[in-house]
Amino acid sequence: MNVKTRTVISLVCNAVIVLVTTGIVISYFFVESKILKNGYESFMFFTTDSNILAAIGAALVMICDVKILQGKRETVARAFTLVKYAGVVSLMLTFFTVLVLLIPAYGIGMQWGGTGFHMHLSAPILSFVSFVFLEEHTRIKMSDTIIGLLPTVIYGAVYFTEVIIVKGWMDFYLFNIGGMWFVTMPVIIGISFLFCLIVRALRNKVLQRRSK
User: Fold this and answer.
1) Which residues contact 188 (CB under 8 A, 6 or more apart)?
2) Of 195, 190, 203, 163, which is closest to residue 179 (Cα–Cα)?
3) DSSP alpha helices (H): ranges in 98-180?
4) Contact 93, 47 (CB under 8 A)
5) What pLDDT score was predicted for residue 70?
6) Does pTM top 0.85 for this prediction?
7) Helices and strands of the chain, counted as H and E runs
8) Cβ(196)–Cβ(145) under 8 Å?
9) What pLDDT digit, counting tens, does each position of 95-149 carry?
10) Low-confidence ranges of the chain (pLDDT < 70)
């Protein structure tokens, strides 16, 4: 697959991520939900936050995709790449959490039905595929994994503060069942870091093969 074809497909994937995610987040403020009393409550969920971050990364990559197609640059800007990287890792964690914890607890229809189809399934897949296989990119350094891990650490600190200390949120991700937050917190961070390593390794491997 040549550069132009990859870039066009990347542009389409990222456009879908941006447009659908934007539409869904806006809809939270206008469509009644059994879960949300108002649209602002949607920001309590890592799903919403990770999808917004991924959509921002996708929008930034789109800018470079257009310039690549116009012949004005050869790769995606490194800063934009790292934003997308953080979003992709966050969505991988979202996908994993839904698959392992939320579907068994709440059912596949609730998690992969309606807006969940995009936020929990299609956005993670599109983000991962475009980032690893399609974008004209530079290598992800080992030190960059800190950036990939940062959203999980920040959200985790807020979540456990609200659920355990402030008790302002219900434990909707079931991370404190049996008071086991001190186990689940490092496990979740560890899993997120594993995704940082996996995404980095696959992306760099694709780049290595492409350069031969």
Assistant:
1) 93, 97, 152, 156, 175
2) 163
3) 103-106, 108-112, 116, 123-129, 145-160
4) no
5) 94
6) yes
7) 9, 0
8) yes
9) 998 888 778 877 887 778 888 899 999 999 999 999 999 987 788 999 999 999 9
10) 32-38, 212
Place of tokens 């917004």: 52
What pLDDT is recorded for position 36?
65
* DSSP class per residue in 139-155: PPPGGGHHHHHHHHHHH
Q: Which amino acid is at 32?
A: E
Pick left, alpha or beta for residue 205 (phi over 0 → left; psi -120 to 50 → alpha; otherwise beta). Answer: alpha
Tokens representing 110 are: 């609730």
State the Cα–Cα distance between residues 149 and 107, nearest whole angstrom. 28
Place of tokens 């659920």: 163
Q: What is the DSSP letter of 101?
A: I
